[in-house]
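Raw record, unedited: Metal-sulfur cluster biosynthetic enzyme
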Amino acid sequence: MSQSEMNDQLMEALEEVIDPELGIDIVNLGLVYGVEMDDKGDVLVTMTLTAMGCPLAATIQHEVKRALSVIDEVNDVEVNIVWSPPWSKDRMSRYAKIALGIS
C-alpha cells in the first residue's frame, strides 16, 4: 500500500470519531491538521479542538486511538493537541457547515 493510500485509510478511520458536542466527525470539522505514520506503524495525529479547555479532550483522544488501532498496519498512536493555528469554522467542510446550519 502506498503512503498516499495509507494516509487516505487513516483519515477515513478518523471520520468515525464524532465530536460529542457537535455530532460531526473531527475530519469534517477540520480539527485534524495532519496524520503521519512511520515505518514501524507508529502514527502521530496532529489536531486541535474547537475550544481550549474542552472537557471532552481525553474522550476525543481515546476515540482517535481506538479508531486508528483497528487498522492492521498501525502499531501505536500518539495524539498531539495543538492550538496554533487556532481552529475556526473556516476549516469545516461544506458537509459540516450544512449539517450545523453555518453558511
